[in-house]
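FORM 7B - TANDEM STRUCTURE REPORT

SECTION 1: FIRST PROTEIN
SEQUENCE AND TOKENS:
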Amino acid sequence: MDVAIINMDKTITKLPIFRETRFRSPGEYERQLGFWVDRIGKAEYTNRPVHDLRILGQYAVVAVESGDGELITKTKGTHNVQPNDIILLTPDEPTSYFPRKIWFTRWIVWNGPLARQEAAAIDLELKKPVFRQMADIVHRAFFVLVRLMDVEDRVGALERQAVILNMLVALLRAQSSGIEIGSSEPDWKALVQHIRNHLNSRLTSAELAALCHMSMPHFRRMFHRHTGRSPMEFVVSERISGAKGLLIRGSSIKQAACEMGFTDQFYFMRVFKKITGQTAGQFIAATRGVK
């Protein structure tokens, strides 16, 4: 830790606290739901003196796309922030964050009684305020919300809530995956086990690359080197292997497809035949002795 950070830690308790008062008025359906996305945005900022800490009064994620800086919090200390990191802000934690020179950020802010209930249910308040190298997760949520922010009906309100929840699930899953990142490569065995533990989830190459703190092209190359397949080829193969086990144990084709993350039964049947060389029905007949 450098001298500047040490000195900052000593002065945190002396900084005045500013309470944010700018909030968007939720729409009718958002009030009924008890959850709303207050705002999204993007901007470039330059370094500035730290005069106070701010209580946002809402939840927010800030994705740092370029540049580095610091996050100061009242109860969780000072944290270095690097490019592609995410800052998590909670309603009652006094914070200040700023670039060392200049940075570009995107942010998502949300609020509501249900937002607090959900945060408590997933223990969000206790998570570290910086998620390393996971900005892609926020980017995906941001660009989905771009087309949803002006939708004022019930479906729009529910879709915005779903985007936030899916984003948080992806962040928490990545943080708790147990994949250790070394100086050069991740623990590939741990990554494969993570995939097998989440076959019924919507795994994507982008999410897996974020878990490994790698760019997508580098991750694909390294994954193929270690497994002989692309990430999605491996995921689909593992899902079909899991489905075969379920079919042997008596599950129906529909049940096996659903449990292995296939939302379309007919697509599952096509993939099953392509990989195994026989239909799911033929596989059942052969393994269960059905004539």
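SECTION 2: SECOND PROTEIN
SEQUENCE AND TOKENS:
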Amino acid sequence: MLKMQKNTLRHVGWLIGIVMVLGLLMVVPLSGVATAADDKSAAKDQQATTSSAVGTPQAHSADAAIQVGTIVQLAGDKGSDKVKPATSKELGSMYGVVIDERKLSITITSADQKNALFVAATGTYPVLVSSQNGMVNVGDYVTMSSVDGIGMLAEPEQKIVFGRAVSGFDGKNNVIGNVSLKTTNGKDADKAAIGMISVVIDIRKNPNEKSTKADLPSFLQRLGEAIAEKPVGPLRIYLSIGITGISIIAAIVILYGGVHSSLISIGRNPLSRKSIFRGLFEIILTSFIILIIGLFAVYLLLKL
């Protein structure tokens, strides 16, 4: 009887090992295909972004004349070449800055373009800024101010920046105008000076943005971002940990119960080993499927 139980345990061990290997062989190629597809999609998006942003400034139209140095965003329907002054309420829509077409070696415009102007989406160009957030020093990040089309010093509260200052503006020298700022109630507040500085256009997430996330172990944050390939909130990470733990526990409980009952059944009725092993295989497969479903649910929770 002891020898038979040892053989049975050995067979069960081999069976579990085979099922785990087959499962890994199924999961790894799928994850590889998903990663390859994501990489390919990301490469296409990057290529499209690069091709549209890099190069000579493009001709656009506007409903009204827009001053050189004004930060603009796309307006109108999709595919339209119309632009308008960017607003602080739509930081993610910042597109580029209006430049002086006289400084371009070649300018090509269409007769259909109303108030034709040229917009640069990359490179270093003069940009209108205000002293709303204080003086802008060389190396500071610039974002939209409360005045449409005019930038200012980016504070950690602003999520997106337009670029980085190459020259500075203290609000006292090289002032080209002043503007009255409005409060949230629409009343006049302090006045801000307006000047023009050179800015390297680099529309991106503010590197100095203050994190509003709850405290989370760094290794968990890195693991979640590595799986999702994007920033992930702590709620999703904690939910993922919970789902993973429940899946593992459920799989272990089902597997242990199946193996334990199978060994008892074989000990009581050795002649039914074949049917018992068949049932044991189904139990192992079920526990493994539960584990895979749980891990896949975690992947979707972090990815989507």
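SECTION 3: OBSERVATIONS ON SECOND PROTEIN
Residues 60-205 form a domain with the Virus Head Decoration Protein; Chain: A, fold (CATH 2.40.300.10).
Confidence is low (pLDDT under 50) at residues 1-6, 21-54.

SECTION 4: SIGNATURE
Preparer initials: ____
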